[in-house]
């Protein structure tokens, strides 16, 4: 919660490499100077490049200039509708234009943004929110009516907005404005960590009359809209009236470059100053050479495979359990990511608050896997694995897992998907796919991906008793009791869930050496990640 006191947690799991996890702090994140899960940044952990001037945050900020940032995008179907944000490029653009009531700090605790403060009643089923004084780009104040409109739009049953599941605890029919800047949120049940709901992925605030998000988007964020060409670029201009301080940059341009080589070449050639998500082999080729800054943060990005639990062959939990035992996680990490990360244990959020670190590290066991497949009548199983070059390590890990599965008598046919539409394609299609995730609280991962009504439920994990446990955890005021419920839920996922999590990868990016001012300890999806309003060009 927002005002929860700091606490120190023990290291996670029995197989943690002290080089990757030197110590933990509040909510399980790494101590200062070490990278946290789902994190990437431009300074602090980048090695020799950082000391020579690239990517640092020291010095006096300078006003002016245009920064060009290259991200993998979503093709011609891209939109600036912030409630549809899904890819990292979508979120980076959305946070440049819009604000949320709260956002996740570097430790994944909820930090006030448009909400100046919040306060709960004793039973935790009513929360009073006071908005700060902020204005939209057209000069109108951000009001309680805008907030309620935004949340009602997100939860429209006819829409599939990502934050819908996270906002589910709110009774929006009963919730109401108590003034221009006051809101009383009435909840369907007591919710101890309601500020996390306000910080939910995709829960941006838009004007109550907003309809045109791609040609005239109006937000309250640090940059104003200039132009947008889906699948190509988006240009934004400095908002001098931003409530949290005007950006240093005059302009910010997002450039879509789906191929990693294109992003690297653009950075090396001076066409961009920021290249998002580089492969470990690229990092090794350029680290310490002085031309660009390479930054790697440890164990940042959950990597795995998603099995659809609602259709054959993975509707039989014995097949899922066999696949857990087929995976050689170290071989996947070494082969797909050059060892740049730590192995996973089929659960999201290694190192995060509530992570079930007491569960034994799963090891490869081909004999047991074959026995499970035989019991399921799937001795000569053939299955298609969908993957794409949309993310570092995807195609490599797919090939490695195909070879691992063959030793258990399973034939895997690897199919390449479109980089432009991969994430939407695999949400409902296929049976087995490559998957990854950046940082979010474990409770947010559950609400957005593992409940019957979750809009990004890639494993089609639909269990009413599991939903009920989540609601019980939300309503449990005592943290220890709440943690016990989350551990119970994770034990079930560990036993029969649909996510085969084989590793947590280092996050790597590159910047021009003149880039300054980016927070060095900001996990992806959190407040200070991709905060281009705090960046300047030296």
Biggest sheet layout: 11 strands, mixed
Domain module tally:
3
Distance between the termini: 38 Å
What is the gyration radius calculated from CA atoms?
22 Å
| Number of DSSP helical runs | 15
CATH class label of the largest domain: Alpha Beta
Q: Strand percentage, roughly? A: 15-25%
Organism: Streptomyces niphimycinicus
InterPro entries: Peptide/Ni-bd, SBP_5, SBP_5_dom, TAT_signal
Pfam families: SBP_bac_5
Domain Solute-binding protein family: 111-438
Q: Outline of this structure?
A:
With 538 residues, the chain is α+β, with helices and mostly antiparallel strands. The strands form 5 sheets. Strands 1, 10, 11, 12, 13, 14, 15, 16, 17, 18 and 19 form an 11-stranded mixed beta sheet that branches. Helix 14 runs antiparallel to helix 15.
Question: Can you walk through the features of this model?
Answer:
With 538 residues, this protein is α+β, with helices and mostly antiparallel strands. It has three domains: 48-79 and 214-297 and 512-537, D-Maltodextrin-Binding Protein, domain 2 (3-Layer(aba) Sandwich); 97-205, Dipeptide-binding Protein, Domain 1 (Dipeptide-binding Protein, domain 1), CATH 3.90.76.10; 299-506, Dipeptide-binding Protein, domain 3, CATH 3.10.105. 25% of the residues lie in helices and 21% in strands. It is built from 15 helices and 21 strands. It has helices at 48-51, 88-97, 144-154, 164-167, 194-198, 260-268, 280-286, 317-326, 329-337, 366-375, 394-406, 422-428, 442-449, 464-475, 479-496; strands spanning 66-71, 99-100, 102-104, 110-112, 115-120, 126-131, 176-179, 182-186, 204-205, 223-229, 233-238, 251-256, 274-275, 293-307, 341-343, 382-387, 411-416, 432-437, 499-511, 515-516, 536-537. The strands form five sheets. Strands 1, 10, 11, 12, 13, 14, 15, 16, 17, 18 and 19 form an eleven-stranded mixed sheet that branches. 54% of the residues are buried. This is ABC transporter substrate-binding protein.
């Amino acid at each position: 919660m927002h005002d929860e006191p700091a606490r120190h947690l023990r290291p996670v799991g029995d197989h943690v490499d002290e080089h990757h996890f030197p110590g933990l702090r509040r909510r399980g994140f790494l101590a200062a100077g070490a990278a946290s899960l789902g994190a990437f940044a431009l300074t602090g952990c980048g090695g020799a490049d950082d000391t020579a001037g690239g990517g640092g945050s020291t010095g006096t900020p300078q006003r002016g200039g245009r920064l060009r940032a290259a991200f993998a995008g979503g093709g011609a179907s891209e939109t600036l509708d912030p409630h549809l944000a899904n890819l990292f490029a979508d979120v980076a653009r959305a946070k440049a234009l819009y604000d949320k009531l709260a956002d996740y700090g570097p430790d994944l605790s909820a930090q006030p943004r448009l909400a100046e403060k919040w306060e709960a009643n004793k039973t935790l089923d009513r929360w009073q929110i006071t908005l700060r004084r902020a204005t939209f780009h057209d000069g109108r104040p951000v009001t309680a009516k805008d907030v309620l409109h935004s949340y009602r739009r997100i939860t429209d049953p006819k829409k599939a907005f990502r934050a819908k599941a996270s906002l589910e605890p709110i009774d929006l029919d009963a919730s109401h404005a108590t003034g221009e800047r006051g809101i009383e949120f009435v909840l369907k049940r007591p919710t101890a960590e309601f500020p996390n709901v306000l910080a939910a992925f995709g829960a941006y605030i838009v004007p109550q009359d907003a309809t045109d998000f791609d040609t005239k988007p109006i937000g309250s964020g640090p940059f104003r809209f200039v132009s947008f060409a889906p699948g190509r670029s988006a240009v934004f201009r400095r908002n001098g009236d931003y409530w949290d301080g005007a950006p240093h940059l005059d302009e910010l341009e997002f450039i879509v470059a789906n191929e990693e080589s294109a992003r690297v070449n653009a950075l090396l050639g001076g066409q961009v100053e920021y290249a998002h998500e580089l492969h470990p082999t690229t990092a090794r080729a350029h680290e310490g050479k002085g031309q660009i800054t390479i930054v790697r943060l440890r164990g940042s990005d959950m990597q795995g495979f998603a099995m659809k639990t609602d259709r054959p062959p993975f509707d039989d939990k014995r097949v899922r359990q066999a696949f857990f035992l087929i995976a050689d996680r170290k071989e996947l990490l070494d082969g797909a990511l050059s060892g740049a990360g730590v192995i996973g244990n089929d659960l999201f959020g290694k190192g995060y608050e509530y992570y079930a670190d007491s569960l034994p590290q799963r090891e490869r066991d081909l004999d047991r896997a074959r026995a499970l497949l035989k019991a399921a009548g799937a001795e000569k199983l053939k299955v298609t694995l969908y993957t794409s070059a949309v993310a570092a390590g995807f195609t490599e890990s797919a090939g490695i897992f195909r070879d691992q599965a063959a030793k258990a008598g399973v034939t895997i046919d690897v199919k390449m998907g479109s980089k432009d539409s991969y994430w939407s394609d695999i949400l409902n299609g296929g049976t087995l796919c490559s998957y990854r995730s950046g940082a979010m609280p474990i409770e947010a991962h559950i609400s957005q991906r593992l409940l019957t009504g979750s809009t990004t439920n890639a494993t089609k994990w639909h269990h009413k008793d599991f939903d009920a446990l989540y609601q019980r955890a939300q309503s449990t005021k005592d943290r220890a009791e709440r943690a016990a419920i989350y551990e119970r839920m994770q034990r079930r996922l560990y036993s029969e869930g649909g996510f085969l999590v084989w590793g947590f990868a280092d996050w790597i990016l590159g910047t021009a050496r003149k880039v300054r001012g980016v927070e060095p300890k900001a996990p992806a999806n959190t407040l200070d990640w991709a905060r281009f309003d705090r960046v300047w060009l030296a």
